[in-house]
Specification:
alpha/beta; Nucleotidyltransferase, domain 5; 5 strands; about 20% strand; globular; disordered C terminus
């Protein structure tokens, strides 16, 4: 990130509650997925990327931490819905059960990402009263606890990955619609990018396409 660039990271996470067996030291709250929307403004134009990952049953949380470590940039602002009480604690809990080397590497990346501004839209109640913003950050049906547990158990993760990306994107749109990125035309740039992305996906999935 250069001095000219401004980078925003919107984070989404999916967790489930796993009943603990007697004598088990496995985590009760299990991190099974994460989504990122990264928006960078260089003073003239926006660049966006959206990615997500999810774990299958039996897969270690540390695999998700490795994925995040490779992607979390040094951000000017990190955004999330209930980031203080749900997302960051879930990440720290996962690190507590990871291989020490992986945990240390991840915590360094996380602390670097969080060292500047952190915006929790669940705390900023103005998000709930702005028209349309509640719809942007509404939790997708697959993110409901019982559905999450079923998808995780059956390995049905494509919908979960898509919804994690959608939640990260919705949180970012809620943030910019509150005027948190003034003078940058962020919402229109985001929607233009979404349109281009959908158009590319439609071409890929069109008749006769593999």
């Amino acid at each position: 990130m250069t001095d000219k660039n401004v980078t925003f990271v919107s984070v989404a996470a999916a967790t489930i509650i796993v009943p603990q067996a007697a004598g088990s030291n496995a985590p009760e709250v299990y991190l099974i997925g994460a989504g990122l929307l990264i928006a960078t403004y260089d003073g003239a134009r926006w660049r966006f990327s959206a990615e997500s990952a999810a774990l299958k049953a039996g897969e270690k949380e540390q695999n998700l931490l490795l994925w995040l470590s490779d992607r979390l940039p040094m951000a000017n602002t990190v955004i999330g819905w209930n980031i203080d009480n749900r997302i960051v604690p879930a990440l720290i809990n996962a690190a507590a059960h990871a291989d020490p080397t992986i945990a240390q590497h991840f915590m360094l990346r996380l602390s670097r990402a969080l060292r500047n501004n952190v915006v929790d839209l669940a705390i900023d109640r103005s998000a709930a009263v702005e028209p349309g913003i509640a719809d942007e950050v509404r939790t997708a049906p697959s993110m409901a606890p019982d559905v999450l547990l079923e998808c995780w158990g059956k390995g049905q993760l494509d919908t979960l990955r898509a919804d994690l990306r959608a939640e990260a994107l919705g949180t970012w749109l809620a943030f910019v619609r509150q005027g948190k990125a003034p003078g940058m035309a962020a919402e229109q740039a985001t929607r233009d990018w979404m349109h281009r992305r959908c158009s590319i996906q439609s071409v890929k999935n069109g008749p006769g396409k593999a």
